[in-house]
Amino acid sequence: MKTVYPQIVTSADMLKSTIQLEQLIQKLKENNAKAAAITNSRLYGLLPFWHELSKHQIQPVIGLSLNVQLESKSVVVVLYAKNNDGYENLLKISSSLETRELTILPKKWLQAYKTGLIAVYKADNHFSAEALSELHTIFDISSLYIGIERPNGQKLELEVEIIQAAQQTSTKITVFHMSRYVQKEDAFAYEVLNAMDQSVKMTDHNRLKPSDHSYHVLTNEEWNEWFSDVPHWLENTQEMLLGCQVNFDHQAHIMPKFPLPESVLAKDYLRELCEEGLKIRLQEVTQRYKDRLHYELQIINQMNYEDYFLIVQDFMKFAKQANILTGPGRGSSASSLVAYSLFITDVDPLTYGLLFERFLNPERITMPDIDIDFADSRRMEVIHYVAEKYGKNYVSQIITFGTLSAKAVAREVARVFGFESTTLEAISSFIPNKLGITLQDAFEQSQKLREFIQTEDIRKKWFQVALALEGLPRNASTHAAGVVLSPVPLVDVVPIQNGHDEIFLTQWPMKEVEQIGLLKMDFLGLRNLTIIERILNLINNNRSMKFSLTDIPLNDESTFHLLQHGDTTGVFQLESAGMRNALKQIQPTRLEDIVAVNALYRPGPMDSIPLYAKRKLGQIPVTYEHPVLQPILQETYGIIVYQEQIMQIASQMAGFTFGEADLLRRAVSKKNRDILQKERTHFVQKAIQLGHSEQAASSVYDLIVRFADYGFPKSHAVAYSLISYQMAFLKAHFPLEFYCALLSTATGNQEKLNQLVMEMKQKEIPVFPPSIFKSLPFFTVENDGVRFGLQAIKGVSHLFTQKLLKQRMDGSMNWEDIFDFAASISAIHFTRKNIEPLIKAGALDDFGVERSTLLATLDAAAKYAELVSPAEETDLFGGDASHFGKSKYIKSEPLPLMLKLQFEKEVLGQYFSEHPTIDKKKNITEPINNIWNILQSTKDSKVRVVGLIQEIKRIRTKKGEAMAFVTIQDDTGSLSITLFPEEYAKYNNLLSELSIILVEGKCERRNGKVQILTKTILDC
Length: 1020
Prior knowledge:
1020 residues; alpha/beta; 44% helix; 41 helices
């Protein structure tokens, strides 16, 4: 007897099963399974299930479990796809339920989508003969079965009645058993998962417990033992499942069509657009460009990708017309002259020696990938345009699944176990903060975690369950970029569900969507484009002649001066300390230098940065391992930096086509020994045919092997370096607008705000404090400086800001004092919670009253607001506040400077009034280093700093000795000072928060961070 499994729920059905494919396949192979059916409540996980089982010669069956609303009652039915027609109907059924957010399928829908389906009425103790008869009105006798379970081998109470009803209606009976975990011992882990799904604890009385039968994958012996008296039921099940044949093999690309009149061919229209676009781009089109365009179009036509390019150029045209900023290109598509001619990219591939074959290669038949960056704040507008143009049923975003990571599963299981919240926090702290860490890794690395687990049996049980559930899908969300476009309704090829913003979501993630041949496009949101957009808006605010990115010259001295000094805070991809250091070393004088540093600044290749810098600056000679390399590597001073250079070397040395060269590059980077040797032979033989010696060919091949992993796509580096350069240009020429836009974007990120404000102070760019009369929600440019935004004040609500601005716009701004302000804003909004942060920030300083007085008067002003503006915001006398005598300010002594500064730091994250270290520095005669200068310097040296202590972290060394890390700040920035045990013992008594100290020591850099190794400390 062949073993078949009619009802397997996999972990893809989120929090409904612990079954993962690897362990399932192992179990099915042990049991010599011939067929198994996936019967999740959605079509999640269907494709991997089908492919994995097929790979192991187990017949996969596609099923769906659902409730059907009949006229007599609602029943549980499992539908199986008998063939591809049935599979397509399952797609429609699941999509219909999910897009309408229904939990029960109406009978008429089942009637409409029954073709190619087998239905099994899942019989239990609520079995209804009437419901069975009703199902027979939908399905013929060969397509409807009854499924009978025997939990733990026990017969159902109604089994006799069910058998009678089956005989009366000539309905075949199949055996049923639902599997939700693989082994019997997985039962408890599943029960915990089930509690997670219900968001309850194991001890909760209202927890719906799984029924008492076992949900494990049955063995052959269990099937035969439990149903020993009815072997024909087992035969029916086998016959039913083995009769279900759905085929996914050899899926062709489902390429959408760009709408054109019938008389117009896509290839002709594409050529026409390219020729027009190239004329606009170049004014005079030389033969070199004509040949390249002709060559690219030939390959695009050969691969039938004309419609793809037309679709992308169309939504890019929309974005530009709607003034949505798009990136200059991304990935290998920037190497296409067709993309440049269509204004999809802004990179001329011939200027930068970019190879089309790196993007589209007829020898490597894969879908092209044109990824587009949009200003992240407006990306959805473009997706909506595409959905509107091609139809809502043809466009979808792509689902992505979040899994239970080590930290998440540890906390979640602990919560279900009823552990205290403090224990949950402790557990989190025991697991190292490392990307991709597993619980097993954490157990091996963390002694505290091991000790925690060993102390109690319940904790051991907790850890076992957490290990069992780790990695299971936990939640679904929308992929950050992926959008699917189909020439046929999506429900014909992929199950869909409701998404956000009225755009559907596929039920399958990206890999599976691409597997079935659908075209996936990436609409990426790039925050830096939003920043550039804001900068341009600020620049053009009062201009008649609008400035645009196309006005930026690529040889601007001021921009290169800024880059050479590493002045790159806020500049895309060039912000990190390491990158600044690389720029200072390389001293860029052309865009290609930025392209190179962007490509080199990665683990491995970055070791070549000092060599690149020395060769560029003429400090050491440029050498080449072979003369053939000189023209290819000249621009990067003899260093292989780009994948395109590897392709060019293979072309020049061994006569490879660029298509072959791209295949070589990909093959070599996989580091497969057999492939490496095979390709070596191929390369050397072809090089010898071109007249090179075997030794020369072999040494150049070694070079390719060494750099294949290091090489970076030049097309991507060029495109992204353009954004870097544009931002550096804007910073060099429009610093006010640059900082203003950056500050607004950084609102909520205190560290970033502080860094920007400090830098502006160093450049003597005024930063004006917040003001209820002048500030807007975000930062604004004002009188050669930047005004603080109200939203950047901690504790001020958005609603309050909106009310304040409304009053100002309505002209109600003749506030002579805090009482006028209170009356105008109304008692609803004039509350201590809203106003106290404003006073502390200095936003009410325009009243010319001490902040201490404003704070003392706050309650009186709030009472005045209540009198003149009751809850409905109009007073009893028609809004005329003159009927009430205004209170007077409750005068108070000015706030001590340190308290005033503390208040500013509390609500603004930084000191706005004069920094207390400035006064102290005036009284010191010896030279003092500013923290800013220390941070900018690339050399380690002895320093003397006056700093205000912000934070003290005391620790013990492995020997048990006390030491400390102390964060100090002056008016130019903040950094960390380290006191080793000897210095700590001497100066510990001087360490207290907010005290000002003079530190002498040695400045040192580690992992891109600056610290002072302290020698002496004096009290200031």
